[in-house]
TrEMBL record:
<comment type="function">
    <text>CRISPR (clustered regularly interspaced short palindromic repeat) is an adaptive immune system that provides protection against mobile genetic elements (viruses, transposable elements and conjugative plasmids). CRISPR clusters contain sequences complementary to antecedent mobile elements and target invading nucleic acids. CRISPR clusters are transcribed and processed into CRISPR RNA (crRNA).</text>
</comment>
<dbReference type="InterPro" id="IPR022765">
    <property type="entry name" value="Dna2/Cas4_DUF83"/>
</dbReference>
<keyword id="KW-0378">Hydrolase</keyword>
<keyword id="KW-0411">Iron-sulfur</keyword>
<dbReference type="GO" id="GO:0051536">
    <property type="term" value="F:iron-sulfur cluster binding"/>
</dbReference>
<dbReference type="InterPro" id="IPR013343">
    <property type="entry name" value="CRISPR-assoc_prot_Cas4"/>
</dbReference>
<keyword id="KW-0408">Iron</keyword>
<dbReference type="GO" id="GO:0004527">
    <property type="term" value="F:exonuclease activity"/>
</dbReference>
<dbReference type="GO" id="GO:0046872">
    <property type="term" value="F:metal ion binding"/>
</dbReference>
<dbReference type="InterPro" id="IPR051827">
    <property type="entry name" value="Cas4_exonuclease"/>
</dbReference>
<dbReference type="InterPro" id="IPR011604">
    <property type="entry name" value="PDDEXK-like_dom_sf"/>
</dbReference>
<feature type="domain" description="DUF83">
    <location>
        <begin position="12"/>
        <end position="199"/>
    </location>
</feature>
<keyword id="KW-0540">Nuclease</keyword>
<dbReference type="Pfam" id="PF01930">
    <property type="entry name" value="Cas_Cas4"/>
</dbReference>
<comment type="similarity">
    <text>Belongs to the CRISPR-associated exonuclease Cas4 family.</text>
</comment>
<dbReference type="GO" id="GO:0051607">
    <property type="term" value="P:defense response to virus"/>
</dbReference>
<keyword id="KW-0051">Antiviral defense</keyword>
C-alpha cells in the first residue's frame, strides 16, 4: 500500500506522538497549539539551521539544509535540518555531482540528549524517507543538541525502524478516525505547552473542540 500526498502526516509529529498521543492529536487533528519557552527556543534554533538556498561543499562533503523528504510507503513528509552527502566508493549518484555519496542526516535539537527515544525516532523516520528516495541504506545519523553543542551519533537499527513504522500506522488510524485519546495526568504534563488546552486534570473524554463548544453554549444561556 502507498499513500497519496493528501494523506501524508508530518514527520515531526512522531516526537509529539511518542511524548503523548493526546498531545499529537490536539496539534495534528484538532489544530490546537500554544507556545512556551521550550517551543520558542526550539523554533529559533531551527530557523538558524533552515536555509534551503544554502549549500556547502568541503573536502568531499556536500551539506544540504532544509531538505524536503517524504515516504509514500509510510505516508509522511517533512524537512531534514541537515543532510550530509559524503563522497565514497560505494554510494548513490547525485545529480550535477561526480562520484558516489553516502547519506548522513543530522537533526538539530535544543537542550540535552534525552533518555527517551523521541529524537532518535524522528531521525530514523527521516533516514527511512531518504532510503526510499535514494534507493539506499543509511546505517547512521546524528542529533546535534544545543546545550552540549555536540553531535550524538545514532545507529538506525531495525528496532527503531519497526517502531517508526508501527507508530505512523497508529497515527494514520487516529487521523482517519479523527480520534483524540484521553490521557492520565502525569509529571510530563507540567512541561507540556498544551496543558491549559488539554486540561489533563479534568480527565474529560470530550475533544477540545467539543469542550469549548459546550462552554460557549453555557455562556449564551
Amino acid at each position: 500500500m502507498e499513500y497519496t500526498e493528501d494523506d501524508f502526516l508530518m514527520i515531526s509529529g512522531i516526537q509529539h506522538f511518542k511524548f503523548c498521543r493526546r498531545q499529537w492529536a490536539l496539534i495534528h487533528i484538532e489544530q490546537q497549539w500554544a507556545e512556551n519557552q521550550h517551543t520558542v527556543i526550539g523554533e529559533l534554533m531551527h530557523k538558524k539551521v533552515h536555509d534551503p538556498y544554502l549549500r556547502e561543499k568541503r573536502k568531499g562533503i556536500i551539506i544540504a539544509r532544509a531538505l524536503p523528504v517524504s515516504s509514500r510507503k509510510m505516508g509522511i513528509s517533512g524537512e531534514c535540518d541537515v543532510v550530509e552527502f559524503h563522497k565514497c566508493e560505494d554510494g548513490v549518484k547525485l545529480y550535477g555531482h561526480r562520484g558516489l555519496y553516502s547519506i548522513y542526516p543530522v537533526e538539530y535539537k535544543k537542550g540535552k540528549p534525552k533518555i527517551t527515544d523521541e529524537d532518535r525516532l524522528q531521525l530514523a523516520a527521516q533516514a527511512m524517507c531518504l532510503e526510499e528516495m535514494f534507493c539506499t541504506e543509511i546505517p547512521k545519523g546524528a542529533i546535534f543538541y544545543g546545550d552540549t553543542r555536540r553531535r550524538e551519533s545514532v545507529e538506525i537499527t531495525k528496532e527503531l525502524k519497526e517502531e517508526v513504522q508501527s507508530m505512523f500506522q497508529e497515527m494514520h488510524e487516529y487521523y482517519r478516525r479523527k480520534y483524540t485519546p484521553k490521557v492520565k495526568n502525569s509529571k510530563k504534563c507540567r512541561s507540556c505547552s498544551l496543558k491549559e488546552i488539554c486540561l489533563p486534570k479534568l480527565g474529560r473524554s470530550l475533544s477540545v473542540k467539543s469542550y469549548i463548544s459546550q462552554m460557549l453554549k453555557e455562556e449564551e444561556k
